[in-house]
Amino acid sequence: MDTGGSDGQKEKISPKRPTIYDLAELAGTSPSAVSSVLNGTWKKRRISEKLAKRISKIAEEQGYAVNIQASVLRRVRSNIIGMIMPKYDNRYFGAIAEQFEALARARGLFPVITCTQREPELEFEAARELVSYQVDCLISTGATDPDRISEFCAAAGVRSINLDLPGSKAPSVVSDNFAGARDLTRLLLQRFAAPAAEGQPLLFIGGRGSDHNTAERIRGFEAAHAEFGIPLPPENILPCGYAAQKAEDALDAFPSSLPAGLFVNSTITLEGVIRWQARNPSRAFEFGCFDWDPFAALLPGNVGMVQQDVAGMLAKVFELTATEASPDLNVEIPCIIKRLGGQG
Amino acid sequence: MDTGGSDGQKEKISPKRPTIYDLAELAGTSPSAVSSVLNGTWKKRRISEKLAKRISKIAEEQGYAVNIQASVLRRVRSNIIGMIMPKYDNRYFGAIAEQFEALARARGLFPVITCTQREPELEFEAARELVSYQVDCLISTGATDPDRISEFCAAAGVRSINLDLPGSKAPSVVSDNFAGARDLTRLLLQRFAAPAAEGQPLLFIGGRGSDHNTAERIRGFEAAHAEFGIPLPPENILPCGYAAQKAEDALDAFPSSLPAGLFVNSTITLEGVIRWQARNPSRAFEFGCFDWDPFAALLPGNVGMVQQDVAGMLAKVFELTATEASPDLNVEIPCIIKRLGGQG
DNA sequence: CACGTTTGCTCAATCGATGGAGCATGATTG
DNA sequence: CAATCATGCTCCATCGATTGAGCAAACGTG
Lengths: 344, 344
Fold this sequence. Notes:
The structure is a homodimer. By secondary structure, chain A is an alpha/beta fold. Chain A has twelve helices and 14 strands. Chain A has a six-stranded parallel sheet with strand order 2-1-3-4-5-13, sandwiched between helices. A six-stranded mixed sheet of chain A has the order 8-6-10-11-12-14, with helices on both faces. The first copy, chain A, has a two-stranded antiparallel ribbon with strand order 7-9. In chain A, strand 10 (261-264), helix 11 (267-279) and strand 11 form a beta-alpha-beta unit. In chain A, helix 6 (120-132) runs parallel beside helix 7. The first copy, chain A, is elongated. The first copy, chain A, starts with 19 loop residues before the first helix and ends in a 5-residue tail after the last strand. Residues 1-14 of chain A have low confidence and may be disordered. The interface between A and B is large, with 55 and 55 residues. The first copy, chain A, binds a DNA duplex through residues 19-21, 29-36, 38-39, 41, 45-48, 51, 66-75.
């Protein structure tokens, strides 16, 4: 009864996705045989190569795709690895997302990333959701409250690892923020070692004083000033938040005249700084930035950028997923410092 | 017997996640009651408010999180929405990812994004994987072969939508590349309408000649030249690929002297152009770029950028997920043109 | 007080894949 | 030729949540 409009020749006309039961019927065999052929355990289960080939062919023809929900439900491990990430709007997080996916796939894991907008409640909800998805392991990137997530994961029997921001209830992998900030501050201070600006302190801008990374970077910033014997007044440290607008407002509100050198704590903060500079072209300054961006690297006045070693951090993270590491473990990965042209 | 190290008081000591069966036992009720309370159907199923509260309390105490695999397996719709995305390394794709997640969540859907590195095979594999995850709908962003994916989805009974690059087998939402490119070209040509450069054609660089968006942009580029009555030699169109290195190489190989104005087809191409410029400081030019980046907007010589209306495109995409749109539908969303300072 | 109706819950089949246990064959050995 | 073993499969319980069907008790009505 070819009443026209039949599509394809070998395809079943069924609108639903074929299951192993459908394939078993088509192949005149049992669902278990089909299952074992399609998941690669057929040799162990002593299925003949002949049958395996026949089943594979039919599966191909039917456009079969395993139902992962059913598969995961039955299996002990899900092979799903989850990551929560605050934002996608800069190169650092973009690189983490991309490389995380690639590394997970290379290990036969299915990566699921979810973006939490730096909102603590969304973060926790996302963690709960990923646990609902039966992730074998959850990576919390830049979480505001990593310990809450780690505790929840521990209770659910899910391994967790902190990335970028450390916590005390799960192993952590972070950049060596202290050394990176110290080196960048040194670079800036060297620029001003000679002429008029000699001995003047820099201005630190951006980030949250309460967050570990910002605190560490401030520590490095202070250490370099101490090395150079330059006194650092407390008002020169402005952890005004990450958003670009916050930085603009903070610079507007800065009481005295601006220092000749700025330590900018993130690329997003740098956006605000540069916008402020555009509004105040008379106030010349040079800057360095903790974080890397290819276009920001080309901005005039940029003396240097600190690039975090994403590949190194993720390699360590995946190493930790495979071992039973202590929650106290805190791995610090050195940053890469990019010396730039500055004024020239 | 407080032998130290016991954790919590009400928490079960069980290392496994509690199921509705565990909760039912603790509450002295049936799994069905627990299920209906936790998924919100308890009123319809005439469970008393008293029992509902008791169950909710116990679930809370036990840190219960539903097993989505089991839930989806049983349900007709999964409420999972998938997206494949070529890269995360620029603001455009970052914005798409972020807003896609936010919009999906706002609709009670679970978003899963996967990054395919512009590799056709990875793209198809990712699509198959997402179908395995029972996505209700799959969005292909910037796919090199969207029709292959659409066909696979159709066979699996999964709705699909193309974003950014159009296809013929599923409804598509793309930027109005022609108009955007024409407007940007006009902007550039106006810059050169007066002095020495008058009547000189621009150079188009970046993208793939085979891809729809690049073709449309070239069409807009040509249309603006025609409007201005400026002849455009074919060698002034260089769709050398997207990668930064390709652009550098193409500029190195450019036979005659470089035009005074460049139409750069993406921010990633612009990276190569700017690196080339740094190597060849004597060759001055101005440029416009199809795509937006906050730091690139601040580069000297940047005359204007075309920002794609991500919010507008995604709003349309979600509108389409809710309706049964024709595969021939091709929605074009106007771009936002950002006029910049240029040389000044 | 017999009979319908509402309330509040439980039973059990089901979704699709998995894998331990087991059952026919046919081949090998003493 | 019986006993043993390897080969090539199939059977079926299981994972956890969902939901139509159904049951008992309480309540209402003439």
